Amino acid sequence: MKIHEWQARELFEKYNIPVPRGYLCRNADEVRKAAADIAKPVVVKAQILVAGRGKAGGVKHASSPDEALSIAQDMIGATIKGIKVTSVLVVEAIKPEKELYIGFTIDRAMRAVTLIASSEGGVDLEVLAKTEPEKIYRKNIDPMVGLHPYEAREAAYSIGLSDKSANDFTSICLKIFEIFNSVDADLAESNPLAVRFDGSLVALDSRITLDDNAVFRHREYYQVDEELSPLEMEAHAADLAFVQLDGDIGIIGNGAGLVMATIDVVAHFGGKPANFLDMGGGSSVESVYRAVKICLEQKSLKALFVNILGGITKCDDVANGLVRALKESQLKIPITVRMVGTNEEEGRKILSENGIWYLDSMETAAEAVVKSAYSRN
Amino acid sequence: MTILVDKSTKVLVQGATGREGSSHTLAMLKYGTNVVAGVTPGKSGSNIGGVPIYNTVKQAVSEHPEINSSIIFVPAPYNADAVYEALDSGMKLIVDITEHVPVHDSLEFVNYARNKGVTIIGPNCPGVISPGDCKLGIMPGQIFSKGNVGIVSRSGTLTYEIAWVLTKAGLGQSTAVGVGGDPIVGRDTVEIIEMFEGDPETKALVVIGEIGGDAEERLALRIRQVGVKKPIVSFIAGRQAPPGKRMGHAGAIISMGSGSAGGKIKALEASGVPVAELPSQIPVLISKSMRQ
To answer: B265-279 burial by CB neighbour count: b if 16+ within 10 A, else e?
Structure first.
């Protein structure tokens, strides 16, 4: 889960990591006041949870409070990359001598936390990893032991820092690692971490994402993912894993891997899947009902494919939920059900009694649903 | 032989009295798994299908010293505690079924277990089955049949789908291992393949992968470098998955341009591993690669 830059910045401040003077503002007047108080050129930064806001006009420089006011008047309330701006961060504009990168992430294969540092900050690290990988320093940290100061120091000297900058870097590095652990982050970075002309360091940007599974320990940061569509938000609220794609065949199944495979198989037979919807294992009548209702809210559907391989999921529960949802929805599109596994006989009986067609091979069913979607018009 | 579990597996169920824990305790018993005891704090003295319940793992193990494996159904917020309790009570194998375990928790207990030489499978996994001998997991047993194909998978229901295809084609399985859908798992695809290589009962291997991470790419690299002792075929889910979106599993996400199905398929094929486009092609590919 992404958190806002201002929230990450607050954490940096709490851990005494130097950041530029700044204020979070919710309207243009506050922005003017903030700029006047800082009394130096400022940067106005839209607080939206989307990458690439700078290029999309979400980060602007102002040399006076009046200029800051006029930028804020345009920015607050505007829509950037599909997301409405409701607040901005106003910070002192600092001209750095040099820009660095510092970050922590999780290395899945090594089962470790990785410290990443670079002398080339302020650029997209993914791009740098491709063009000049030798400029990226990586060190895996044993999660049982934690980060030793020497490891932070090694990183500092490895990216060419010396004296004061190296000392500052070591201290900031240890503090970001502490933050990374304290909020269950899967990413914590500063890009750029600026070197001032006196050699001291200041974090010009701060970015943290939290592990979705640990949000229950950090309720204060919980927020809705702004990049989700309204329907995706509704599905998440109902505890369903749902991703909208851009096709026209609705897909529902049980289990993430099976649903991904169902989408691939439908595409293999020439269909265009509209969504990924995993209603999870052990589905109840109620969860099936909600899944079908949400899936059918997609207006452009030409057909619906329900693919169930019952393990802990019981076929009769699925059939009952399906029948209830379909009755309420007065479905006008063809539906194909593939249903095998636990309580298959009972489930199929319920489907038959309600005139719903079912098959027992995923691939035959996928072929059938594609035909049913595109043959009528 | 088979890997990880067999007739000598003596099972403790942690979280045995909950909804999932109790129904799967009964299902495992029905399959013939040797379930010896269960643990739920505060429920000592009760039983699930005749399996005695204890307050702590220590009590269970002192009453039943033959216990060597644990399966965990304890919810995510308390999951790490349950894993440590098992790790500190002398288990050799721990299967962690629970979904939504915080990654900082699994990062720590997985490393702790590795230092202790204990095998963890999961979290967020369907478990392990050696058909006919032992089911230490939540998979529907009737879909699997005894045989010589080893399965390693990052998914649950997709494993059942492919096991079912194999069973219908007359290709039974030695062991099927669901390693789990999380970014951090106790044993990954490459390590399970290494176990299968040393198992005389396993004659062919099926690798079921999905988007996210680089387990499949690392397997491909290993095959290029040191080869693989047994015929191996694969299926990768998520060819149509868009980048940056989590597809159900915590670990199923294409991030920073890596972890796509296309990249994994290319890597495997470059190492001579045929990748099926449809599950139904897998039996054919296995038969073909076993003849070579």
So the answer is: bebbeebebbbbebb
- Asked which of A217, A252, A272 is the last residue of a domain, the reply is A217
Calpha distance A40→A5 (Å, rounded): 21
pLDDT tens-digit readout, B86-112: 999 999 999 999 999 999 999 999 999
Contacts of A168 (CB under 8 A, 6+ apart): A18, A199, A200, A201
Least Cα distance to A311 among B38, B84, B138, B282 occurs for B138
* Beta-strand pair B69-72/B10-14: parallel
Q: CB B247 to CB A214 under 8 A?
A: no
Mark yes or no for CB contact A241/B161 under 8 Å. Answer: no
Q: Decide if A257 and B278 are in contact by the 8 Å CB cutoff.
A: no
The reply to whether A157 belongs to the active site is no
On chain B, the residues whose CB falls within 8 A of the CB of A287 are none
Find out whether B85 and B57 touch, Cβ atoms under 8 Å.
Answer: yes
Structural domain for B105, as ranges: 10-121
Tell me the CA end-to-end span of chain B in Å, nearest whole number: 25
Whether B81 and chain A come into contact, CB under 8 Å, resolves to no
Burial class (CB in 10 A: 0-12, 13-18, 19+), A162: exposed
pLDDT per position as a tens digit, A324-335: 998 888 778 999
Q: CATH no. for residue B17?
A: 3.40.50.720
Q: Which of A163, A195, A217 is the last residue of a domain?
A: A217
A189 flagged as catalytic? yes
The verdict on a CB contact (< 8 Å) between A211 and B103 is yes
Same-domain pairing of B63 and B158: no
Structure letter (DSSP) for residue A54: I
Give domain status of residue B127, yes or no.
Answer: no
Distance in Å, alpha carbon of A315 to nearest chain B alpha carbon: 13
Give tens-digit pLDDT for A39-89: 999 999 999 988 788 889 999 999 999 999 999 999 999 999 888 999 999
Are A141 and A112 within 8 A, CB to CB?
Answer: yes
**Cβ atoms of residues A287 and A275 within 8 Å:** no
Please report the ipTM that was assigned to this predicted complex. 0.92
- Domain count along chain A: 3
Same domain, B187 and B88: no
Alpha helices in B88-214 (DSSP H): 103-116, 157-168, 189-197
Pair A226, A83: CB distance under 8 Å? yes
